[in-house]
Each structure stands twice: as C-alpha cells, then as structure tokens.
Amino acid sequence: xxxxxxxxxxxxxxxxxxxxxxxxxxxxxxxxxxxxxxxxxxxxxxxxxxxxxxxxxxxxxxxxxxxxxxxxxxxxxxxxxxxxxxxxxxxxxxxxxxxxxxxxxxxxxxxxxxxxxxxxxxxxxxxxxxxxxxxxxxxxxxxxxxxxxxx
Length: 151
What we know:
Structural class: mainly alpha
C-alpha cells in the first residue's frame, strides 16, 4: 500500500500518518524525549518517507520537500503537539486528581552528580516557552488546541 504507484502520494501520506506514525508515537505524550530519541525518530520516518516516494538518499532531495509531497508535518513537531495536548488535559483536571498530582510531584533529595537528565515536566515547560504558552491558556480548550497546532 505504501509503495503502490497506483495510489496517490497524498493518500499514502494520510495512510502513513494514521497507521505507521501513530504506532511510532504511541504513548509519546509521556516520554521524556532526549535529542538522540528525536534523531532516531526523524531517521526512521525519513527512511519510510523516501521509500514511499521511491527516492534514494543519494538523490539528495530535501526532507521538507518529500514530506510536502505526502502532506506530512515533521515528526518532532507532531510529538511536541501531542505532548502539549496531553499536558493541557492534565492542567484542566481538578487539583486533587491523581494524574495532576503525579505530574506536579517533586522528588525530594539530591540529584546524582553530573548533568541530570531532564524530566518530562522540564521538557514540556520548554515546549510551552517555545510556543509562548502559559498554564492559564490551557483552561480554554479551543484556544489551547489552536495555539499548539500553530507553528
């Protein structure tokens, strides 16, 4: 299906987005994604995109152009949107909800030596700053959704 030349690239792109990408990103709302994870996701996606378009790496066609042919957004921006969408749901919950308590929980004690790994919350807060979002925006569901979809 993904490489069938009888099917248009836009249909193949929608199929890829709904099946393959959803499987790749399943549960990603809660991943504390590191740079090496992002690179691995981008490489895997671009391998599949090139395969669907029938383009080899040696052809040196830009990734953005290939994604445009299929009507796909960058997998990292989709990952960020999904994470922020879930964060918005958590912020809308009651203060005594266990999910909200887990997200806002601070572990006591000293962190290990060296550069500490970023927590999920630190990553989400950085994503919010990049998109100029704040906690109050999440209370308006429609506005929050529009803001996380804008790039």
